[in-house]
Design goal:
Strand order of the largest sheet: 12-11-10-17-16
Distance between the termini: 24 Å
Low-confidence stretches: 1-5, 21-26, 267-272, 489-503
Shape: globular
Oligomer: single chain
Strand content: 15-25%
Number of helices: 15
Number of strands: 17
Helix content: 40-55%
Number of domains: 4
Radius of gyration: 29 Å
């Protein structure tokens, strides 16, 4: 199959942000102009713009930013273009978190005016930062929970009250006079035989909305029907207090509804397999992606595998690969790497170098230089005063320089807090911590793949694994085991196949 140089046109959106009217920085219009020029140079079509005015990047509470993240779930665009890195977020934890969410939706973030490296080590750094943030949050949560625990013992509202309740003047649950009656009717309708979908239709057509302001769905109604708060149970962590909340439904009616819902529940549909290696597998022969597919046998059983997209037009004869065997093969190789101390050391060094390069795109070097210059001038002024040149002018200048130093130190501290640098020991600690994960845990395997696997090329006799790392261990070549290959001709594991569908 001939390789082509025609790169598909990507759909892009622009995100622009302006912190405050008092700052001297590019206007939103200027940011958009630069981003559109970037899109044109890189063969991208701009399909939308998201802008937040006078909002800091230190917080994620930005309306259009959140709307952009939410819209990424709709597969409307492939790329987010920002003017500079700090337009997306000035808090590295937020940056790592939201880039990960966008990536899960198939969207990447690029910058029009930054030359900060976007190398593979950056992915590892973001993964470490996510782990660091999680570790920090867990410790912070312990302190927060102490205060929550005391309030919980008093049956006070700790989060937004669920549908049917409001927060009373004493901080405890109180019945919403309108929505409380709606909850009672929902339970009554179920007891009288009304279908859940009909209750959903009635609620939405009547203009009622969930406590979050959205339309009712089957899930939101079922959540109400299974929520013990409506029989007066207050729960928080290990605290459970009967009659801690004003009841809207009797215990006998609640239990009867549970029985009805259990009988109504249909057998759960067969779960679709999660293809761990999606977007990361490529055919070494034709260059096409390997995609997840499943085959259905005559008895309804499903068998999952990866297949080269080039097979669809009979352009490639690359083998299908057993999904479970291939995923285990690659994750096992990644675990072996983590167990190698030399690999951990090399990756830590590479991430530190990446972090240094990334810092060049921030205000930190300029602020540090400014602070050094102010301190030099202060020392000169102090020396002059010690030598007898103390005048009202020199004393006023000394006071002015002291104020400038305080301001520069504050700005530098804020910038460092927004972009905390991890030292080498931190990085090694979190990489070594990943060794203790459960190799059978899907979430652990997903984190391994997202952190370390850049892509894998499938050849008839071997698999070439490329890592998110540019050192000497960046590429692994492994023999193709026969156990990885799935049966090819209308059968899977000896079972005749009726249908084959793509994921």
């Amino acid at each position: 199959m001939k390789k082509t140089d025609n790169k598909p046109t990507e759909k892009a959106v622009i995100y622009a942000r302006y912190s405050s009217s008092g700052q001297r920085e590019e206007s939103i219009e200027g940011q958009i102009r630069e981003c559109r020029a970037y899109a044109k140079r890189n063969n991208m079509i701009v399909v939308g713009e998201y802008t937040d005015h006078a909002l800091t990047g230190r917080t994620d509470k930005r309306p259009d930013f959140q709307r952009m993240v939410k819209d990424s779930e709709k597969c409307l665009f492939d790329v987010v273009i920002c003017w500079k890195i700090d337009r997306f977020a000035r808090n590295r934890y937020d940056s790592a978190t939201y880039k990960h969410r966008l990536k899960k939706n198939g969207v990447r973030v690029v910058y029009a005016k930054e030359s900060v490296p976007d190398g593979p080590e950056g992915i590892i750094l973001e993964s470490v930062m996510e782990g660091y943030a999680e570790y920090y949050s867990e410790n912070l949560a312990q302190n927060v929970k102490r205060g929550y625990y005391e309030n919980a013992l008093a049956c006070k509202v700790l989060t937004s009250p669920c549908f049917g309740y409001i927060k009373g003047d004493d901080g405890r649950y109180a019945v919403d006079p309108v929505k409380g009656e709606i909850v009672k009717r929902i339970f009554s309708e179920i007891l009288s035989g009304t279908a859940t979908k009909d209750i959903v239709t009635w609620l939405n057509s009547s203009g009622y909305r969930t406590y979050r302001g959205g339309k009712f769905t089957m899930s939101s109604v079922e959540y109400i029907l299974k929520n013990e708060k409506y029989v007066g149970v207050y729960e928080y962590e290990d605290i459970r207090i009967e009659d801690g909340i004003p009841a809207l439904v009797s215990r006998s009616d609640f239990e009867e509804v549970q029985i009805i819902m259990k009988h109504r529940a249909k057998a759960p549909a067969a779960k679709q397999a999660a293809y761990l290696l999606s977007t990361k597998l490529f055919c070494g022969a034709c260059g096409c992606n390997y995609v997840g597919e499943y085959a259905t046998s005559q008895n309804g059983s499903r068998y999952y595998y990866y297949a080269c997209m080039g097979k669809r037009g009979h352009k490639c004869d690359a083998p299908r690969l057993n999904k479970d065997e291939l995923e285990k093969f690659i994750t096992d190789e990644l675990v072996k790497l983590l167990l190698d101390d030399n690999f951990i050391e090399e990756v830590a060094d590479a991430v530190i170098e990446y972090q240094k390069e990334e810092e060049k795109g921030t205000r930190i070097p300029a602020l540090e230089a400014r602070l050094t210059d102010i301190e030099r001038r202060l020392n000169n002024m102090a020396t002059a005063i010690e030598e007898g040149l103390s005048t009202p002018t020199t004393r006023a200048r000394l006071k002015e320089l002291e104020e400038q130093r305080i301001g520069a130190e504050r700005e530098l501290a804020e910038e460092l807090l927004a972009r905390p640098n991890l030292d080498r020991d931190h990085i090694i600690f979190f990489l070594e911590k990943m060794r203790s994960g459960d190799a059978n845990d899907p979430k652990y395997k997903e984190r391994l793949v997202e952190t370390f696997l850049q892509k894998a090329y499938i050849y008839p006799d071997r698999i070439v694994i490329s890592l998110n790392y540019s050192g000497k261990s960046a590429t692994l070549t492994k023999d193709m085991a026969d156990t990885l290959k799935a049966p090819q001709n209308g059968a899977f594991n000896g079972v005749r196949i009726d249908t084959v569908e793509s994921r």
